[in-house]
Design goal:
The structure holds 2 protein chains of 2 kinds. By secondary structure, chain A is an alpha/beta fold. Chain B is an alpha/beta fold. Chain B folds into 3 domains: 178 residues, no CATH class; 114 residues, no CATH class; 200 residues, Rossmann fold. In chain B, the strands form 2 sheets. Chain B has a 5-stranded parallel beta sheet with strand order 6-7-8-3-9, with helices on both faces. In chain B, strands 2-1-4-5 form a 4-stranded antiparallel beta sheet. Chain B is elongated, with a radius of gyration of 34 Å. The chains are: A alpha/beta, B alpha/beta. Chains A and B meet through helix 2, helix 3, helix 4, helix 5 and helix 6 of A and helix 2, helix 3, helix 4, helix 7 and helix 8 of B.
């Protein structure tokens, strides 16, 4: 299923979109009607006929005058309502598609930036409907209706206007888009350099300041910045071509009416000449829509690329029931991402309640092993047995109800401490929550907070320190009642002392559970006599 | 929201040129609009009243159209070039200013926001310059000319426009004012809801770990639906202001048309004048309506520039200007009763801390995690301004001296050194670009990094090196400078005891003063003196 299917409206939304287009056409149509009727009225009036003959036109002019505001209001409300509905469906469908991919399939987007990018990319659905598709549809339909009106009056003049409308709806957006793409191509490299230089300077700000090297490092940034500015200056020359062509289209339509309509009666002639002027307003949004369309297409392309990632783990058709025991056996396990295997034939026996430290430098496959144990990654060869049953024949969620994971950067949700904990065990009593917090040695801290369990932790847990965040994640893990805990570098971002304390608390609180500690610093683990397996 | 931020003109010269150019283009466009209207009115009335030909007028019109198209193109070119220049100026100013604001201000969250601002964020100024500002200029120039010209033909029509035109911004402001409190409340609710989806997506792996991922699509749908309902409630009000705009503009044109028509019937006006008024009336409202339509372009651009000015207007920490920094080879460094409190933290990070470091001494700072050991180093470097207390050297307070010169007295190795893309040698040379290869080599050897080659690239954020190697490079970087004092934050973390002993011996051999943060007994033993850092409130 391509991404286009994801951003298309569901059946229930289509009438609302239709209403938005209809209201938009009526709003633009009244603008055209206002000018056409006024032109007719004035030219007719100049022959000084009895006022009665003008009454219909006068009423029409006034009606058109009131109509536009009302219709535009309806268009915008209906359009936004529909676009938000489409956005809700799209988000839900994409969440469904992302679920089987997470986390191994999203590995390339592991950094928070890229996920934030994904969220913004999906929001492009709003732009797609509100600022690209609706305005273009409305412009095309209103343009066609105007052409129809003029053809009735004088076919040849109508044909001239038709040419103008078609050019405005095809060549103008193409030209605008082509120029925008060209600019993007010219600037992409320099923009990347500027972003990289800025990131580096900001990340190393303390070092740069401490060594009084601000001016030196700014020089490299300014070089990249100059290249970017030069690229944009160069690309500027083609930027306005679409807009200019639009002015020519409308002007040409006007002149065509002026030249071709001379044989018609006065009022009709005025209508033929002046009506195209109203098109300037109707078609004016097209270049902007075309520019946005480029950006929206880029966004949707990125979403599509992400969604087309192969699903990393196939769920079994008929899952076996989860076995009773929780002993783990690993035989000849081979796993990898690229052509080379990261784990090359690992054997490991983990009886229930055992404790093991697995070490090795980064890249030796510690996190890969964790991913396989949690059914986030498919082994290439060998097997992982849970109480004698191959985990590939079990439902992934079931396996994860038995095996839990604590990583170096635990995710906490932007909600209260209570909600973050309840995630692991919905319906848990406060007593159970406090019990878990105290066992993770976070109880006193939470107790000392003015709002206790209802304290909001902030975006990505920003209001907690690194150690507090890890302890909260650990309390959450304890609540979930797993039999096996996989701890993947749980203390990586903490200072040495906090790391040691946290690790000994983790081992103590784990109680009867099996504990697999993956770390590149086994010396921090309590009781270094336990078996240490070196993956290198 | 200000339509045009004067700070933008002040900060970026290109913006001033652009505004001047846009006004020129705007005036020319306004003139052409009038000429086009005059020609059309003349053409139609010639044909209708006199049956004359339209040849000349058609050609003149073609010329006017061509000129308008050229101006439209020129406006865009000028806008793009101005945007490029303004963005470039602002980028440099923001980066330099945020670097100077220092690490205390520049949290990791803030640096990623700033990177976004410097690239994507500032690009929002493109449409602001290309579409919004020119329309704003047109809105200020075209209506005046058009109404003036209308007045020469028909005073009543001109008066209709003059009366209604100011009503538009007035009513829009009234609507905006009436709905402001309401929409602010809404905005807050909306922000919470808008964040939900990104939280779910970012935390998908965690949700999966706890078997909660499958139900999320439904919750996303539900929350987005709540978001929509709340949005629509506020949009119904927000769109009222554009409703007023469209309604007034379009009713006024209708009024003008009918009024002119009736005066024509009574024979009080000629056809040509009437047509001229009819063509010009919508043109008077058009720029104002376009400004409204470009609201999005403006809102994003204004938000980006406001973000920029928020950074630029953050005052730099007070800086001394004295250049006669005392030589710490011969004079001691003293901290007197230093108290540091970080924002949002109730407890002081350092509370009445005293420290004397004499030339040539090796002093170890110890204490529990979070006691403020690293803060002591940050205070000495001037990255953190203490709430009270003072850093003294040679009888003067440290903040009297130029910060750059002051910092040249110190070689600092932070807990997580920031390495820059380039070779190991380039990184070691950060504080002394003219160090020879031999000096760099020697510094690396002393730092316990004899195995590292000078030309080895370190990768982005030093990723090609291990954590321990990064520290070694940072230590070499500090050693290679002439700085008499080394400030080392856990310099031997991740080293085995043998290597650690070698590094400590090497440090001693340099004869430099050393202030180091230490956890391990080996390192404390190597120090001349151990100073314990602890919060006064905490009983150990």
């Amino acid at each position: 299923m391509s991404v286009l299917a994801l951003v298309m409206p569901q059946r229930g939304v289509r009438p609302r979109l239709l209403l938005a287009v209809l209201a938009g056409v009526l709003a633009s149509g009244t603008a055209v009607g206002l000018l056409a009727t006024s032109a007719w009225l004035i030219t007719k009036a100049s022959a000084e006929p009895p006022v009665l003959t003008l009454l219909v036109a006068i009423v029409a002019v006034r009606a058109f005058g009131v109509g536009r505001g009302v219709f535009r209001y309806v268009e915008r409300l209906a359009g936004h309502d529909a676009a938000y509905r489409v956005l809700g469906d799209t988000r839900a469908r994409i969440t469904e598609r992302l679920e089987p991919l997470a986390p191994a399939g999203l590995a390339s987007t592991r950094s928070g930036d890229l996920l934030a990018r994904l969220v913004l990319d999906i929001d492009a659905v709003l732009d797609l409907w509100l600022r690209v598709l609706l305005p273009v549809l409305v412009a095309a339909v209103t343009g066609a209706a105007t052409v129809g009106l003029l053809v009735l009056l004088l076919p040849v003049a109508g044909a001239a206007v038709a040419v103008a409308v078609v050019v405005a709806c095809t060549v103008v957006p193409w030209l605008t888009a082509a120029s925008a793409r060209r600019a993007e191509r010219m600037m992409a490299g320099a923009r990347g350099d500027v972003a990289a230089a800025a990131t580096e300077n900001l990340q190393t700000a303390a070092d740069v300041l401490a060594f009084d090297a601000v001016d030196d490092v700014l020089a490299t940034f300014e070089a990249a910045d100059r290249r970017l500015a030069a690229a944009q200056r160069q690309s500027a020359w083609s930027a306005g071509l679409g807009g200019a062509l639009l002015v020519i289209c409308v002007g040409a339509a006007c002149i065509a009416g002026l030249v071709l309509g001379t044989g018609e009666s006065g009022p009709v002639y005025a209508v033929l000449v002046l009506t195209p002027l109203a098109l300037a307003d109707v078609l004016g949004g097209i270049p902007v829509a075309a520019q946005l369309a480029i950006r929206v297409r880029g966004s949707l392309q990125r979403v599509e690329d992400l969604l087309s990632t192969p699903v990393p783990v196939a769920e079994p058709e008929n899952a076996l029931p989860l076995p009773e025991g929780s002993a783990l056996q690993i035989h000849g396990l081979r796993v990898g991402y690229g052509p080379d295997d990261v784990l090359r034939g690992l054997d490991l026996d983990l009886p229930a309640g055992s404790r093991v430290v697995i070490t090795g430098p980064s890249g030796s496959g510690k996190s890969t092993l964790a991913a396989v144990l949690l059914r986030f990654l498919e082994p290439r060869a060998g097997e992982v047995l849970l109480d004698g049953t191959d985990v590939r024949r079990l439902d992934g969620d079931q396996v994860r109800s038995r095996i839990g994971l604590l990583t170096q950067e635990s995710y906490v949700f932007d909600t209260s401490i209570r909600e973050n904990l309840l995630l692991a065990k919905p319906g848990a009593s406060d007593l159970q929550l406090w019990n878990a917090l105290y066992r993770a040695r976070l109880g006193d801290f939470v107790h000392g907070l003015p709002r206790g369990l209802d304290t909001m932790v902030g975006e990505h847990g920003a209001r907690l320190s690194g150690g507090e965040r890890q302890r909260l994640a650990f309390a959450r893990l304890l609540l979930a009642d797993h039999d096996v805990l996989v701890l993947d570098e749980p203390t990586e971002h903490l200072d040495e002392e906090t790391a040691q304390n946290l690790l000994s608390d983790l081992f103590r609180a784990a109680g009867h559970r099996t504990v697999v500690l993956l770390t590149h610093r086994p010396e921090l683990a309590p009781d270094p006599t336990r078996p240490i397996i070196d993956l290198a | 929201m200000k339509p045009l931020d004067p700070r933008l003109l002040r900060r970026a010269e290109a913006a001033r040129w652009f505004l001047a150019g846009s006004v020129a283009i705007g005036v020319a466009t306004g003139a052409l609009v009038i000429v086009q209207a005059v020609l059309l009115a003349r053409g139609i009335s010639d044909v209708v009243l006199r049956g004359a030909g339209v040849g000349t007028i058609a050609w003149l019109l073609a010329a006017v159209v061509a000129a308008r198209a050229a101006l439209a193109w020129l406006q865009e070119v000028v806008a793009q070039r101005a945007a490029a220049a303004v963005k470039s100026t602002l980028r440099r100013q923001v980066l330099e200013h945020s670097l100077k604001l220092g690490p205390a201000w520049l949290s990791s969250e803030r640096s990623s926001q700033l990177t976004t601002l410097l690239t994507k964020g500032l690009d929002d100024l493109d449409p602001y310059f290309a579409r919004y500002l020119p329309q704003l200029v047109l809105a200020a120039t075209v209506p005046a000319g058009v109404v003036g010209w209308m007045a020469t033909g028909d005073l009543i029509a001109a008066a209709t426009v003059v009366v209604t035109l100011p009503l538009i911004p007035l009513f829009m402001a009234l609507v905006g004012w009436a709905t402001q409190a309401y929409s602010r409340r809404r905005q807050r609710a909306l922000a919470v809801l808008a964040h939900h989806f990104s939280d779910v997506v970012s935390g998908l792996a965690t949700l999966k770990l706890f078997g909660r991922a499958k139900g999320q699509a439904e919750s996303v749908r539900r929350v987005t639906e709540e978001h929509r309902v709340a949005s629509m409630a506020s949009l119904r009000l927000a769109f009222l202001s554009s409703f007023v705009l469209e309604l007034l503009a379009s009713i006024s044109v209708a009024l003008v048309a009918v009024g002119v028509g009736l005066r024509l019937v009574e024979g009080r006006m000629g056809l040509e004048t009437a047509l001229l008024v009819l063509i010009l009336a919508p043109e008077a409202y058009l720029p104002l309506r376009q400004v409204g339509a470009q609201f999005h372009a403006s809102a994003d651009g204004v938000a980006a520039s406001e973000e920029v000015f928020r950074v630029l207007e953050t005052p730099l920490p007070a800086q001394g200007e004295r250049t006669d920094v005392p030589d710490l080879r011969s004079t001691g460094l003293h901290l007197h009763d230093v108290t540091v409190r970080y924002p949002d933290r109730e407890q002081a990070a350092l509370d009445g801390f005293d420290l004397d470091v004499w030339p040539g001494e090796v002093v170890a700072l110890t204490g529990p995690s979070g006691a403020g050991k690293s803060t002591v180093l940050a205070v000495i470097l001037g990255f953190v301004v203490p709430e009270s207390g003072v850093v003294v050297a040679g009888g003067s307070a440290a903040d009297e001296f130029d910060a750059g010169l002051w910092r040249r007295q110190f070689g600092w190795v932070p807990q997580r050194p920031g390495l820059r893309v380039g070779s190991i040698a380039e990184n070691v040379r950060l504080g002394r670009p003219d160090a020879t290869d031999q000096e760099v080599r020697k510094a690396l050897d002393t730092a316990g990094a004899a195995e590292l080659e000078l030309e080895t690239p370190v990768g982005e954020q030093g990723q090609l090196l291990s954590g321990g190697q990064r520290r070694r490079v940072a230590l070499a970087r500090a050693l290679v400078t002439d700085a008499p004092v080394l400030l080392l934050d856990e310099p031997t973390a991740g080293l085995d005891p043998v290597a650690e002993a070698a590094v400590v011996a090497g440090l001693r051999a340099t004869g430099k003063t050393v202030l180091l943060v230490a956890h391990r007994p080996a390192l404390m033993d190597a120090a001349d003196r151990v100073v314990s850092v602890s919060r006064k409130l905490v009983t150990v």
